[in-house]
UniProtKB/TrEMBL annotation:
Keywords: CBS domain, Cell membrane, Magnesium, Membrane, Metal-binding, Transmembrane, Transmembrane helix, Transport. The keyword Magnesium applies. Homodimer. The lineage of its organism: Bacteria, Bacillati, Actinomycetota, Actinomycetes, Micrococcales. The keyword Ligase does not apply. InterPro entries: CBS_dom (IPR000644), CBS_dom_sf (IPR046342), Mg_transptr_MgtE_intracell_dom (IPR006668), MgtE_N_sf (IPR038076), MgtE_transporter (IPR006669), SLC41_membr_dom (IPR006667), SLC41_membr_dom_sf (IPR036739). Residues 142-204, 205-261 form the CBS domain. The gene is mgtE. This is Magnesium transporter MgtE.
Length: 452
């Protein structure tokens, strides 16, 4: 028997919403208590703020904390605003220091100090360590809770350390090895510890470590952790002293957020940073309107070009028929190049210094694409109209594809070089730029071929 999870979820949410509307709290409790945490998170993501708070209050304390930890930081922020101070303090204290900072970055500035004051001294100090790093640095996302060992300690002594730190350590599967100055000199895995004899020294088991400075860019550090397949990446200060660790689950979370943000901006919207169904209408409007205004202003360039070449259009009206084709082809070619290079930048396949190599490659790619499309355009347009129109369309497609691919390829690299998000400079702006440029190329070729 096949169960339709989406239909079941929709039905459960409709039932819970109706029960809340009718103040049937007993019914709500019966509907949610006992559900797996993942299903509760899915339900909470689809309810509005007030409904989410009601459901949350009816959950057992431990399960409420598990759900809270799994929710996206913006939804956690909504709950903080909707719950009582005592409930918020309990939830906030139950989070790990790095998860606390994710939440604090979403809260109004006046709320954060109040929550921090309510923490136990140890938790407040650990959270303050993470908060002390810049917003986009990996230090802001690392965990300051870890277990370490020393090259001169034995496996038995190290396992005792791990056992003593089980309650607070973010992970025990990868253990940094520190010298007397707290500098990271190696790394040892729990697997190797468990398979070695008790009197074996850590110096004999440890491997060379991969480390990242706490001030490094958050996405770059997460990419290192994911690409190397590390369960935990030591984060160090300028003197190679350990200050925290980045676990693989946090690295994946960071990369998912960054890729979601890039994908949104390439499509001409601001990232929502929360599930779609829990995003207020005003936030959806705000995420799109700015880009539409920018693109509308940019589109005036196309109008200006058409006005300049109005006489050319009047002389050969058939030219107007091909404007949508040329604009669309140029925009799509540029967007393809920009998306490919932006992704290569994110993966570390190219750097800003590779701009000339990328320019050469995309110029050749654009030329060959244009040659194929131009040949097709020539073959279609010539029998229907005449040889002059066919040659004009063919040559324009070659030129437009070459220019569009070249511009689309180098714009993300130029943006990265000046420390601007490459996604911002990609598809929407490239489409606008290529539209105007493509029309200029089109009319200049038409004037030369048709002797207008």
């Amino acid at each position: 028997m096949t169960v339709d999870f989406n239909n079941d979820m929709t039905g459960a949410i409709d039932t819970i919403s109706q029960q809340i509307t009718s103040s049937n709290l007993t019914g709500v409790a019966e509907s949610v208590v006992g559900l797996p945490t993942r299903e509760l998170v899915d339900i909470c993501e689809r309810l509005n703020v007030k409904q989410r708070a009601v459901v949350f209050r009816l959950l057992p304390k431990q399960q409420a904390l598990e759900v809270f930890e799994t929710l996206a930081p913006p939804l956690q922020s909504d709950l903080v605003s909707a719950l009582r101070d005592s409930e918020v303090a309990s939830l906030f204290a139950g989070l790990d220091p790095d998860d606390r900072v994710w939440l604090l970055d979403e809260l109004p500035a006046g709320v954060a100090p109040q929550l921090l004051r309510g923490l136990p001294d140890r938790e407040r100090e650990l959270t303050a360590v993470v908060l002390g790093y810049p917003q986009d640095s990996i230090g802001r996302r690392m965990s300051p809770e870890y277990v370490t060992t020393h090259p001169g300690l034995s496996v038995t002594q190290t396992l005792a350390r791990i056992h003593a730190g089980l309650e607070h350590a973010e992970t025990i599967y990868t253990v940094p090895v520190l010298d007397d100055g707290r500098r990271v000199v190696g790394i040892v895995s729990l697997r190797n510890l468990m398979s070695a004899s008790g009197d074996t020294l850590i110096d004999e088991l440890m491997k060379s470590p991969h480390t990242v400075k706490a001030t490094a860019d958050v996405e770059d550090a997460a990419r290192v952790c994911a690409d190397l397949g590390l369960l935990a990446l030591p984060i160090v200060d300028s003197e190679s002293r350990l200050v925290g660790i980045l676990t693989i689950d946090d690295a994946v979370r960071i990369l998912e957020n960054e890729e979601t943000e890039d994908a949104a901006r390439q499509g001409g919207v601001e990232p929502l940073r929360r599930p779609y169904l829990s995003t207020p209408i005003r936030s959806l409007v705000r995420s799109r309107v700015l880009w539409l205004l920018v693109l509308a202003v940019g589109a005036t360039l196309t109008v200006q070009v058409l006005e300049v070449f109005e006489d050319t259009l009047n002389a050969v009206t058939v030219l107007a028929l091909f404007v949508p084709l040329l604009i669309g082809t140029g925009g799509n070619t540029g967007n393809q190049a920009a998306t490919t290079v932006t992704r290569a930048l994110a993966l570390g396949d190219v750097r800003s210094r590779d701009i000339l190599r990328v320019l050469g490659r995309e110029m050749r790619v654009g030329f060959f694409l244009g040659l194929m499309l131009g040949t097709l355009g020539f073959a279609v347009a010539t029998p229907v109209y005449d040889l002059g129109i066919g040659v004009t369309i063919g040559l324009t497609l070659v030129a437009v594809c070459t220019v569009a691919a070249t511009i689309g390829g180098i714009m993300p690299l130029a943006a990265h070089a000046i420390r601007v998000d490459p996604a911002v400079f990609s598809n929407p702006f490239i489409s606008t730029f290529v539209d105007a440029t493509g029309l200029i190329i089109y009319f200049l070729i038409a004037m030369a071929i048709l002797q207008i």
